[in-house]
Each structure stands twice: as structure tokens, then as C-alpha cells.
UniProtKB/TrEMBL annotation:
It is a peripheral membrane protein. Belongs to the complex I NDUFA5 subunit family. The keyword Metal-binding does not apply. It is found in: Mitochondrion inner membrane. One of its GO terms (cellular component) is mitochondrial inner membrane. Keywords: Electron transport, Membrane, Mitochondrion, Mitochondrion inner membrane, Respiratory chain, Transport. It comes from Durio zibethinus (Durian). This is Probable NADH dehydrogenase [ubiquinone] 1 alpha subcomplex subunit 5, mitochondrial. One of its GO terms (biological process) is respiratory electron transport chain. It comes from the Eukaryota.
Length: 166
């Protein structure tokens, strides 16, 4: 047992490259991930408990943290998580921490209950800042085909009474 504990870190494979341009190997990726995931779980506490964003972040972060704590080898972490290389996971975790800060700043869940969204109906003028995505007219053939198909699909009688054509 003692020998296994000492020899395992010595026998671990060393990663030479990620194979991704600009993404360097992180020799202590497991420790970095554990630190980032713990920090993420701490910072997400600032988001209201009932928000879907917080629930999602907590869920996948706890799962990833658990795997990192259970596995010593970077290859096993990558295999069990199935979300890319540990270096990519580190980038994702850092990005998530940045996003948490921005979400707290933006406060998208802080919309007052009495807030009313502007609804544009029918021919009301559309504000200039709203992009207009209007498709071009459909070819006349489309309408002819639609009419022909509609005539073929006459409604069927479901009452049990026979349909009498005159």
C-alpha cells in the first residue's frame, strides 16, 4: 500500500503536448482544476439559489470536482469527464469564473415583478434599434402547390355519417 502511494506519482505519464496550438501543458492540472472548481462553487453563492444558472453551474462543477478528487491521473480525469483535455477544462473553468462575475454585475434575475415588456403588435412602428428580419416573397409555384395539396387533403368524416357528394 505504502509503495503504491509513493510510486503512483512517479510512474504517472507526463504529457508532452496538448496538440492544440496555443494551449500549453499544465503539469499540475488536477490541482489547478480542484482550486478553480472550489473557487467557482464559492463565487456562485452570490447568485440567487433558485436561479437555473446557479443550479446548472453548481451541478456540473460539483461533478467535475468529485472526479478530480477521486482520480490522481490526468488521463483518467479526461476519460471520466469526457469533455476534452484537462488544459481545456482549466480554460473552461476560468471562463466560467469570469462569466459568474459578469452575471452578478448584469443581474439578469433582478427584473422587478411589475416590469412590463414592450410588446409590438401588428402594424405598430418597430423601433430603429430592433433588427427586422423579413423574408422575401415566396414564389408563386409555392402557393399553387399548397393549394393543390390542400384540395387533396379534404377533411375526413369522423362522426360515422357518410359524406355525400352532390
Amino acid at each position: 500500500m505504502f509503495l503504491r502511494m509513493i510510486s503512483r506519482p512517479l510512474m504517472a505519464k507526463l504529457k508532452e503536448t496538448t496538440g492544440i496550438v496555443g494551449l500549453d501543458v499544465v503539469p499540475n492540472a488536477r490541482e489547478v482544476l480542484i482550486g478553480l472548481y472550489n473557487k467557482t462553487l464559492k463565487e456562485i453563492q452570490a447568485v440567487p439559489e433558485d436561479e437555473g444558472y446557479r443550479k446548472a453551474v453548481e451541478s456540473f462543477t460539483r461533478h467535475r470536482l468529485k472526479v478530480c478528487q477521486e482520480e490522481e491521473d490526468w488521463e483518467m480525469i479526461e476519460k471520466r469527464l469526457g469533455c476534452g483535455q484537462v488544459e481545456e477544462l482549466i480554460e473552461e473553468a476560468r471562463d466560467e469564473l469570469t462569466l459568474i462575475g459578469k452575471m452578478i454585475e448584469w443581474d439578469p434575475w433582478g427584473v422587478p415583478d411589475d416590469y412590463e415588456c414592450e410588446v409590438i403588435e401588428n402594424d405598430a412602428p418597430i423601433p430603429k434599434h430592433v433588427p427586422q428580419h423579413r423574408p422575401g416573397p415566396l414564389p408563386e409555384e409555392f402557393y399553387k402547390t399548397l393549394e393543390a395539396v390542400s384540395k387533396k387533403d379534404e377533411p375526413k368524416v369522423t362522426s360515422g355519417d357518410p359524406l355525400i357528394k352532390e
